[in-house]
Amino acid sequence: MKRRIPEQLSLDLLRRALSANNPAMQQHFAEVSVLEAWAKVLGPLARYTEQLSFRDGALYVHVVSATLRNDLFLQRTSLIHKVNETIGRRLLFSIVFK
Predict the structure, then answer these.
(1) Partners of 9 in beta bridges
(2) SS3 at position 56
(3) CA angle, residues 26, 30, 33, in degrees to nearest 5
(4) What is the helix, strand, coil percentage profile of the chain, to 5?
């Protein structure tokens, strides 16, 4: 048998291996990637958001500050675009601020 070049274990490789034939696992990884992308897009402002949940293409976010909630509400279309761009596919369709 010919020896293959070993691949370094990475998060992407692990995701590909686990989600190859499991649609439920693919859905879970999609949800996790949306939540990770939200933290990357918001940067330091992400600490003012709590209770993140992703269901059926909608991200539900509880925002601690009312003024920040209003600002994020006005920027929600650009935030949706940035999160989808960070993920690399279109999973997020709406954001609901509480």
Answers:
(1) none
(2) coil
(3) 135
(4) 55, 15, 25
Residue 47, burial from CB neighbour count under 10 angstroms (0-12, 13-18, 19+)? exposed
Residue 46: DSSP 8-state: G
Q: Distance (Å, rounded) from C-alpha 78 to C-alpha 58? A: 15
Write the pLDDT tens digit of every residue in 43-69.
999 999 988 999 888 999 999 999 999
pTM: 0.74
Token duo for residue 74: 């006005």
How far, in Å, CA of 98 to CA of 87, rounded?
A: 24
- Residue 41 near residue 59, CB atoms below 8 Å: no
* Residue linked to tokens 């693919």: 26
Rounded-to-integer distance, Cα 6 and Cα 50, Å: 40
